[in-house]
Amino acid sequence: MRIPKPSRREYMRGTLGVLAGTAAAPVPARAATPARKAVSGAGIQFALALAPGEAGRHRLARQIGVNYAIATVLPALAKVPRERYLETLMKIKAEYEGAGLTIAGVESHPVPAEKIKLGLPGRDEEIENYLAVIEALSKAGIHMICYNFMAGLGWYRTAVNVPERGGALASEFDNRVAKKQGLTEWGEIPEEKVWANLEYFLKAVIPAAEKFRVNMALHPDDPPLSPLRGIGRIVISAKNYRRIMDMVPSPVNGITFCQANFVAMGEDIEALAREWCRQKKIFFVHFRDIQGQGEYFRETFHDNGPTDMVRMLKVYHEYGFTGPMRPDHAPTLEGEANDRPGYAMNGKILAIGYMKGIMEGLGLPYA
What we know:
CATH topology: TIM Barrel
Number of helices: 13
CATH class: Alpha Beta
Structural class: alpha/beta
CATH architecture: Alpha-Beta Barrel
Strand order of the largest sheet: 1-2-3-4-7-8-9-12
Number of strands: 12
Helix content: 40-55%
Strand content: 15-25%
Oligomer: single chain
Low-confidence stretches: 1-35
């Protein structure tokens, strides 16, 4: 038997009836998935190193749930007189806040400091700039400076394209290669000279940092090896850190705990983290890992190095660290340019997810 085809009016009437019946039927309540609340001040502040003017990276940071940034302000402040430091910093701060990010500190010297580190004529002018920028940072609500005292040579690697897992590109240091590269333009600089330069600097700036409540977080020498191409390096051991903190005792004279650098030193990083967290001397953590130490090491992904990263995050929490922590020196992944070795974004995305996963699994708070 042939079934008669319904008219358009009958079709619409039937369809609307079904829709009305569906709307009238009770809909089972969907179980709400509560958004995870990261309470400010309740835990470690996960952050990324982000420069001004990188709007895409700022958005990406927020998209992966990062609320804090470590800013680079040296390029901007080096172009203006010290009387304009505060104005410039406030503009930078507004840019980050517009992206939903809070600046938890600045990394690398906020103003030029190479003459300070090398003990060259003009260092007193650089120190005057430093005193001014400490005050300006404080007035802008930024209370941490991650600085280093690597004279002549900064963060240093002998290769930046070493294959890691799946062909990702990592950096490595091999002192045999470094020695073949010979002296730098600065020739030989003894450690004693670097010690004297650091003491001169700290005695000048720590009183101002204490007055304006700006934590001075000294980064280890990377690599922590002396001499490096003829230049003495002194921030290379826990013993030397204790000497530096005793040189100018102050609650603001402290540490950037770049975890892998202490691994490269051969130190017990868990014991050091407990010691210095108890003393409230760790102001900032670089969370990363390496394979090897001393004369040779290479960077690893955060999830495949030899360090017990789960244990380290637990130690930081248990011993009261609630400052900024950022993943550092991640390998460059497929599809990314390797023009900023260690600082491409995809590896950082993996690292932040890994770090958050650990904290969630341990039931620990983070901000």
